[in-house]
């Protein structure tokens, strides 16, 4: 068994990595929505975040590794969508730096055409990504939903909501629509908020 990161945002970052193309499959904005959704989901699944009137509220006191709970506690009640949108790019940077620090990935700075700064991300051990894929695939096709590990269920729900084709190509999202819906119901409100935010972004990009 290959070891994988403990945090759900770190797992979703790695699941967004395209092993074939050896690069991230999403830009910082969309990836930020997925990672914020993952951070909210992790807090919700652990009971550190609850819900009242369809808005997240602080739950049982506990760790707040990405500062999301503190943001919610210090704010008036706001929608899940608001918190998915909040500081997404900053969370991408934070999770990336965490993965670099802990030895999961390496990042090389370079410039496209000698002008535009870019970061090239490389996963040090592709087996880690494959292990995470395996968990998501098992959740999608394997045991009864009630017996699926909560983080594997969340990975499928967030990958579907965030349109991570590295995990769920469009054909699989259509084929397994019912199963995805059941796994999403187990995961909490954040994936639905991610789906709506991504949908709004797609509409805005189409208009533009």
UniProtKB/TrEMBL annotation:
Superkingdom as given in the UniProt entry: Bacteria
Compartments, as annotated in UniProt: Golgi apparatus membrane
Xref: InterPro entries: GPP34-like, GPP34-like_sf
Record's keyword annotation contains Glycoprotein: no
Location, primary (coarse class): Golgi
GO cellular component, one term: endomembrane system
UniProt-recorded name of the protein: GPP34 family phosphoprotein
Membrane topology: Peripheral membrane protein
Pfam short name (any one): GPP34
Key word Membrane present: yes
Keywords of the record: Golgi apparatus, Lipid-binding, Membrane
GO molecular-function terms, A-Z: phosphatidylinositol-4-phosphate binding
């Amino acid at each position: 068994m290959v070891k994988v990161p403990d945090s759900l945002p770190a797992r979703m970052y790695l699941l967004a990595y395209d092993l074939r193309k050896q690069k991230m499959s999403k830009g910082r904005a969309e990836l930020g929505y997925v990672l914020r959704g993952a951070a909210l989901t992790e807090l919700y699944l652990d009971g550190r975040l609850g819900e009242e009137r369809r808005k997240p509220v602080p739950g049982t006191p506990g760790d707040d590794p990405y500062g999301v709970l503190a943001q919610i506690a210090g704010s008036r009640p706001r929608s899940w969508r608001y918190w998915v949108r909040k500081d997404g790019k900053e969370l991408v940077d934070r999770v990336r730096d965490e993965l670099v620090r802990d030895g999961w990935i390496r990042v090389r700075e370079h410039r496209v055409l000698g002008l535009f700064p870019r970061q090239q991300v490389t996963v040090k051990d592709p087996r880690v990504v494959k292990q995470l894929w395996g968990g998501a695939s098992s959740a999608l096709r394997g045991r009864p939903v009630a017996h699926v590990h909560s983080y594997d269920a969340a990975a499928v729900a967030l990958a579907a909501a965030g349109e991570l084709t590295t995990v769920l190509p469009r054909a699989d999202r259509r084929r397994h629509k019912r199963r995805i819906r059941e796994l999403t119901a187990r995961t909490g409100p954040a994936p639905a908020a991610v789906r709506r935010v991504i949908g709004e972004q797609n509409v805005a990009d189409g208009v533009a």
